[in-house]
Amino acid sequence: MALLDLRGVRKTYHLGEVDLPVLKGVSMEIGSGELVALMGASGSGKSTLMNILGCLDHPTAGEYWLDGQEISGASSDERARLRNRLIGFVFQNFNLLARTTALENVIMPLSYSAEHLAEKEMRDRATHLLGKVGLAERLDHQPSQLSGGQQQRVAIARSLVNRPRLLLADEPTGNLDSQTSEEILQMFRDLNRTEGLTIILVTHDPTVAEHAQRVIRIRDGLIEHSNGA
Amino acid sequence: MKFYRILDTALRALRRNVLRAALTTLGIVIGVAAVIAMMEIGRGSTVAIQRTIATMGAYNILVFPGNLAASGVSFGNGSMMTLTPLDADAILRECPSVAAAAPVDRVRTQIVYGNRNWVPNSMYGTTPAFLDVRNWNDMAEGEAFTASDVRNCSKVCLVGATIVRELFDGESPIGKEIRMQNVSFKVIGVLRPKGANMMGSDQDDIVIAPWTTIKYRVTGSSAGNVNQSAAATAAAAATVLPSQVYPNTSLSLYSVPSATEQSDTPAQVRFANIDEIVVAARGGDQVSESIDEVTSLLRERHHIRGSAPDDFTIRDLTEIMKTMSSTTELMTNLLLIVALISLVVGGVGIMNIMLVSVTERTREIGLRMAVGAQGADILRQFLVEAVLLCLLGGIFGILLGRTTSWLVRVIKHWPTATSIGAIVAAVVVSATVGIVFGFYPAWKASRLDPIDALRYE
Fold it and tell me: How many angstroms separate the CA of residue B363 from the nearest CA in chain A?
């Protein structure tokens, strides 16, 4: 069964009198363990679709099945729980907490999870993840003391700390040079291959999309093209 | 979310901008410090004022013998002879809220020294405890008589400043002898001047002597004496008495109780009856307690059953007490208003900065929401931050306030009194200010849309 299943998802924004349809009936499936690139020009509805996929927003119409659950009608608190439990986010601008150590940044999402871990368990899990992304030596560094690539690694470790089913990366290499981008993308591929993690890379950059097994293109609120890699 | 983590997060957020946090909470610090300092100084002055008022007899209660009624005719307070010096001793011994008690035997007669004479306003036969009751222990000159003077019926007395002026022409009267009813008394002490009392009568126009001496040597009888004996009337030529105006009434001023009435109150006639017992309560708040204690003790001692009326009356100085408590109340209310104003000002400062902080940290809020924080988590985070800020302000305020009051005591020698209540109130109020003024910014933060918040620049 697919991890993610969108059926006729529509999103319409109401700007005063005018209705602005952004998604006009998107249907797609993403299976567990896939590495998918979501591509589209700006204004295509890419960001809106990503917000819906990431449970940050709810569709105006249509069904969204995530991990066997229909969640298009979930309340904001329910969506917060889903995000915490099932989804990890990686952002273009890293979004780390300033003046907070890498370790604390990684631990942060755990403080909102339903499962209550002991303080030591939290630290162990975060330390392990930071080790995995190659930052074992920099647990106590603050974001300002880290390079862009290192910051993004911290962000990836943070997104993994709740052991999510889905990793949603929004232009993860947008602020990085090509060398570092390559490293980060390699890390995504490794995670996908070794852990079987489902990853969606949202990007407009074809070189990034090349790393994906499948590319989903969106244009004017509709899926234009979906090819297997 | 665990409490430790909430606290940790809040502390971390505050530490990110220590200077701003410190300046923000300065309003609370100053407010609380002002409250604490003013409360301590205010309480100090209140205590000082209370002490002054206490010397006016604010804590005193007066016990008088009861009213004798025969054949439907009442004779007013003091007409029944029911109080004894032993009652005074028992009150002091058995009533825990009583600090001092003294029997008083009053007499009004002429005193003579050399070629001068004078009729003092008050002449009291009492025990040294009377001076404790009236806060009159420090003599202007000489010293007070003692308990053994009372036992021995010593012919010694203390005089007030007015007597010194009128009888001795301002010279020191110590060691000199004055006569009353042809009994000579040696003056051994001069009372400190007190001036007029609340009703305008001269409190220094007074002679105090052991009650035994007055009772057995001056008024000359052990029973049947109500204030003025026939002998006193004869000696004090200056005073005009009802017996002189209406000669007939002097024969039977009081009706003689019938045998039945006397058997109803078997303990009426005692070895030595006195006119009054003056009692001092331990403090202003213990006056009503001591009244209750004295009442039940005297009822027991006088064998008054069940619902039978008291054979004595008790009065307290309600007016002075009221003045005192209204003074204190006014002061407290004033301080409270000042405190409230300064804390509201401080609270507005907190709210302002918390709003700025929420705007500034919009992205952080968005991120926290994206990784699974619910609105309630965000609300709690900012609320705890505001409360923590206020509480820290409160703690520093307490320290600053206490230091200030200590400085005032040391440098200006003003009396101060530690007020635990004010400290507790300061903590509670500053936490409340944090909750009240921190709520709106926190609520605003919790209502942010994660998508907009993440995109906020």
Answer: 8
Q: Name which of A111, A166, A202 to mutate to probe chain B: the one with the most chain B Cβ atoms within 10 A of its Cβ.
A: A111
User: What number is the average pLDDT over the span B52-78?
Assistant: 76
Asked if A112 and B368 come within 8 Å (Cβ–Cβ), the reply is yes
For B4, the closest chain A residue by CA position comes to A119
What's the pLDDT score for residue B420?
84
Q: What value does the mean pLDDT take over residues B62-69?
A: 82
Which helix (H) or strand (E) element contains residue B191? strand B183-191
| Torsional class of B181: left (φ above 0), alpha (ψ -120 to 50), beta (otherwise) | left
Cα four-point dihedral sign B135, B138, B142, B148:
positive
- CB of A122 closer than 8 Å to CB of B7: no
Q: Is A100 on the interface with B (CB under 8 A)?
A: yes
**For residue B227, pLDDT beyond 70:** no
Q: What is the pLDDT of residue B223?
A: 38
Catalogue the long-range contacts made by B8-13 (C-beta closer than 8 Å, 24 or more residues apart). B9/A111, B9/B381, B9/B384, B10/B381, B10/B384, B10/B385, B10/B388, B11/B388, B12/A99, B12/A100, B12/A104, B13/B357, B13/B361, B13/B381, B13/B385
Rounded to an integer, what distance in angstroms lies between the CA atom of residue B274 and that of residue B36? 50
Best of B6, B371, B448, B455 to substitute, by most chain A Cβ atoms within 10 angstroms, is B371
Q: How far is CA B390 from the centre of its chain?
A: 36
Nearest residue to A30 (alpha-carbon basis) of A52, A59, A57, A56 = A52
Q: Which residues pair with B105 in a beta bridge?
A: B125
Give A 9-28 residues with CB within 8 A of chain B. none
Q: Tokens for A91?
A: 């952002």
Residue A228, pLDDT score: 53
A4: three-class secondary structure by DSSP: strand
Helix (H, G, I), strand (E, B) or coil at B200: coil
Nearest to B92 by CA among B41, B49, B129, B40: B129
Q: What CA–CA distance (Å, rounded) separates B424 from A156? A: 47
Count Cα atoms within 13 angstroms, Cβ side, for B226. 16
Complex ipTM: 0.93
Question: What per-residue confidence (pLDDT) applies to B262?
Answer: 65
Q: How far is residue B404's CA from residue B425's CA, in Å, rounded to a whole number?
A: 18
User: What residues are paired with B206 via a beta bridge?
Assistant: B122
